Amino acid sequence: MSTASSDKNTADPYFQSLFADRIGGANYGKDTEIYKFEKIKRAKRKALADHPDRALLDFGIGENDSMADASVRKVMNEEVNKPENRGYSDNGIGEYKEAAARFMQRQFGVTLDPATQINHCIGSKPAYAMLPACFINPGDITMMTVPGYPVAGTHTRYYGGEVFKLPLLAENGFLPDLDAVPDDVYRRTKLMVLNYPNSPTGRTTTPEFYEKVVALAKEKEFVVVQDAAHILLTFDGKPLSFLQTPGAMDVGVEVHSMSKGYDMIGWRMGFVCGHPRIVSAFADVKDNSDSGQFMATQKAAAAALDDDSIPQRINAKYRRRLEKLVATLNECGFECEMPGGTYFLYTKSPSGTKSGVTFAKAEDATRYLIEQFGIVTVPWDDAGSFLRFSVTYVAATEADEDALMQETKKRLGDAGLVWNA
Ligand SMILES: Cc1ncc(COP(=O)(O)O)c(C=O)c1O
C-alpha cells in the first residue's frame, strides 16, 4: 500500500474536532476500549474457530426466541394492507391507548384515562432517552440502580446532568438502600429510575418498598420512572405495578414494553403511563423526536394487549426453562434460586477452577467458559461479580431443552468451577 493511501485511511476528517463532548469530542471514534458485548462476540468467534464441532450453549442472548403470537401476526397482516394505516401516527392512536388502559385495569386494577395518562413509544428504550429531556437541566441528578439498563443515565449526561448510582447488592436483597443516599444528592435529584422485576438481578419488589419510594418522592420532590419491561415475566406471585401504590400516580410514570411479555421485541411498541402532566411532557418531547409507530403495528399490539393468554404462555415457558436451569446449575456447584422475575438468572460468579485457574472478575469467568467449554453467559462486575444466564436460547421442544440442560451439566462438570477458592 502506498504511503499516500495509508495516510488517507488514517487521516482525520475535517470535522473530527467538531464532534460534541458528550460522545467523546475530538477523540470520537478513537476509543480503543472494547465493550463487554464485543468481547463476548470475539470469544464466541474464537471458541467456534478452535472447536468447530462443538455447539455453543448460548445463555448470553437477551432476546425472546419466539416470534409474536400467530393471532398478532394475523392482525398485522390484515392492517398492513389498509390505506388508513399508511400515514404518520404522531403521538399514537386511541385504539392502542384504550387497549393499554384495559390491560392496566385487568392486570393491576389501575385505572388510567387513555387520552391523558397513556402515550405509546416506539419500544420502551426511546422513552428512557426522552424522559430526561423533560426534567434534566445541567447539574440535576438522575438516580439509577446498577447493574441496570443505562439509557436514561446516558441521556441525563447528554443534558449536562449527573447520574447517582444506587448499587443493587446481594446483602440488601438487590433493593437499593434509599436511606444511604446523602441529603445533598436528594436535593439535586429530579428523576429516580427503578426497574422491577429487575434486570439483570431477577429480583421483584414489594408494595412496602414502593410505598417508601412514593413517600420519599413527595418529601424530597423528585419524579419516579419505573421500568416495567419484564413485568409479565413475574414468577413469585402476581405482577406488581408501581401505579398500584397509593399516591404513585402523583409522583411518576411507569413504562411498559411489548417486547418481553408478548414476544414482540422487534416490533418496537411500549407505553408510558401515569401522571398526566408527565405523560404530556413526554408526548411533547416525543412529538419533536419521532412521528409515531406504524398504525398497523399499533393495532396488532392492541390486539396482543387484549389477549392475556399470550403473556401467560410466554411466562409459563420461561418459568419452566428457569426452573430447569436453576436445578442444573445447583448440581454444578452454583448456589442459585428461582428468580422472582425476568428471563435471567443472576448468580455469583465462580472464583476459579479445581485445576487452579483463577478469575479476578466475572468477565474472566465468562471468557473462560466460552473459550474452553462453549458456554456463553454475560458478566456483571458493577456490584459484586455475577454471571447472567438467559433462558432465551433456541430449543424447539421440551426434549431439546432437557438435552441442552444435560449438555450444560456435563460441560460445567468438566469445568470444575469453584467459589472463593
Ligand atoms: C430492563 C429493560 N428495560 C427496557 C428495555 C428496553 O426494551 P424495549 O425497548 O424493547 O421495550 C430492556 C431491553 O432489553 C430491558 O431489559
Element order: H for helix, E for strand: HHEHHEHEHEHEHEHEEHHHEEHEEEHE
Count of spatially separate domains: 2
CATH class of the largest domain: Alpha Beta
Largest sheet: 7 strands, mixed
**CATH architecture call of the largest domain:** 3-Layer(aba) Sandwich
Helix/strand structural class:
alpha/beta
Fraction of residues in helix = 25-40%
Using the CA coordinates, give the radius of gyration. Answer: 23 Å
Ligand catalogue: pyridoxal-5'-phosphate
Tell me, briefly, the overall form: globular
Enzyme class: transferase
Cofactor: pyridoxal 5'-phosphate
Protein name: LL-diaminopimelate aminotransferase
GO molecular function: L,L-diaminopimelate aminotransferase activity; pyridoxal phosphate binding
Describe this structure in words.
By secondary structure, the protein is α/β, with parallel strands linked by helices. It has 2 domains: 34-62 and 310-415, Aspartate Aminotransferase, domain 1, CATH 3.90.1150.10; 70-307, Aspartate Aminotransferase, domain 2, CATH 3.40.640. Helix content is 40%, strand content 14%. It is built from 14 helices and 14 strands. A 7-stranded mixed β-sheet has the order 2-8-7-6-5-3-4, with helices on both faces. Strand 5, helix 8 and strand 6 form a beta-alpha-beta unit. The longest helix has 23 residues, at 309-331. It starts with a helix and ends with a strand. 43% of the residues are buried. Pyridoxal-5'-phosphate (PLP) is lined by residues 62, 123-125, 149, 195, 199, 227, 229, 257, 259, 265, 270.
